[in-house]
């Protein structure tokens, strides 16, 4: 399984669907971490179950690289 994060899950879904990529649900659901998620159809991702997740701003602040 692969998890990808995005700032705008709805825009990402629209972009992927415009390219022929299917999702396993029509709209995002609340994932295990409490953020919107959607899974891509494995047949459209080289057999890999791929999750798109949109974390909130606090997650981004707490997990951003500090240089």
UniProtKB/TrEMBL annotation:
Keyword terms, alphabetized: Metal-binding
Keyword Cytoplasm assigned: no
Record-level GO cellular component terms: mitochondrion
GO biological process entries: L-methylmalonyl-CoA metabolic process
The UniProt record lists the keyword Metal-binding: yes
An annotated Gene Ontology molecular function: methylmalonyl-CoA epimerase activity
Gene3D superfamilies membership: 2,3-Dihydroxybiphenyl 1,2-Dioxygenase, domain 1
Name of the protein in question: VOC domain-containing protein
């Amino acid at each position: 399984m692969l998890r990808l994060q995005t700032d705008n899950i709805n825009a990402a879904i629209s972009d992927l669907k415009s390219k022929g990529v299917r999702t396993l649900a029509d709209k995002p659901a609340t994932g295990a971490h409490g953020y919107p998620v959607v899974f891509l159809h494995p047949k459209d991702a080289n057999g890999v179950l791929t999750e798109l997740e949109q974390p909130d701003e606090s997650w981004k602040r707490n997990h951003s690289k500090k240089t």
